Amino acid sequence: MAKLDYSEIKPRKIIIYKDEPYEVVEYYVARTNQRKPQNQTKLRNLMNGRVIPATFHATDQADEADVTRRDAKYLYSAKGEYWFCDIDDASKRFTISEDLIGDNKKFLKENTVVETKIWTDEDDEERIIGLTLPIKMTLLVSDAPPAIKGNTASGGGKLVTLETGAKITVPLFIEAGESIVVNTDTGEYTERAK
User: Fold this and answer.
1) pLDDT band at 155 (very low <50, low <70, confident <90, very high)
2) Which domains, ranges and CATH numbers included, belong to the chain?
3) b or e along 13-36 (b: 16 or more beta carbons within 10 Å of the residue's beta carbon)?
4) Are 20 and 41 in contact (CB under 8 A)?
5) pLDDT tens digits, residue range 56-87?
6) Which of 111, 113, 115, 134 is nearest to 190 (CA)?
7) Contact 118, 158 (CB under 8 A)
8) Which of 9, 53, 60, 180 is the most exposed place for a label (fewest CB within 10 A)?
9) In what order do the strands lie in the sheet with 67-78?
C-alpha cells in the first residue's frame, strides 16, 4: 500500500480510513495565517455508501487502498440482488447488492460489461466495493409522448422512459422505438444511436 500525504488525498482516490475503504469525493486545502494547512475532505464509504467529513493535517498520511478492477457481465436482477458473471467463464456467477450498485441500476441492462472494483483487505479477502458502467450506453426508448407538429424547432425536451425503466429528458424529435446514446455519469441524452 502506498502512503499518501495530506495534500495528495484528492477526488477519485480510494484510501483506507478507520479500517475501511473510502473514496474521496471532495477536498479543500485550507491555509490560514495562524495555523498549518489542512485538507478538509468528504469521504464516501465504499461498503455502505455513507458520506462523512474528514480533516487531514500537514503531518497526516493515509494508506491508498489496494483496489483492482475486473470486468464482469451483468446477467439479471431478482429480489434486490444483481447477478453477474466472469467475462471468460459464465459459470463463475456472483451477486452484488442493490445498495452497492446505487444509481447505476437505472441504466443497467442485460449482457452489459461493467468494471467491478475489488478491495483486498489485510486478510487477503477480496470484496466487491463498487462498479462502473460504460460512460456511454445505447438504450432503447420504450415509451415517449408524441411530438407536437411545429414544436420541434424550439429546442425543448420531453420525458421518455428507457428499456431499463429510467426516465430522462430528450429532444422532442425522439420517438418510442428509437435507440439513443445516454451518458451514464450525468444521466443525460447524448445523441441518436447510429
Assistant:
1) low
2) 3-64 (2.30.30.30), 67-132 (2.40.50.140), 136-192 (2.40.50.140)
3) bbbbbeebbbbbeebeeeeeeeee
4) no
5) 988 889 998 888 889 999 999 888 889 999 99
6) 134
7) no
8) 53
9) 93-97, 81-86, 67-78, 113-120, 126-132
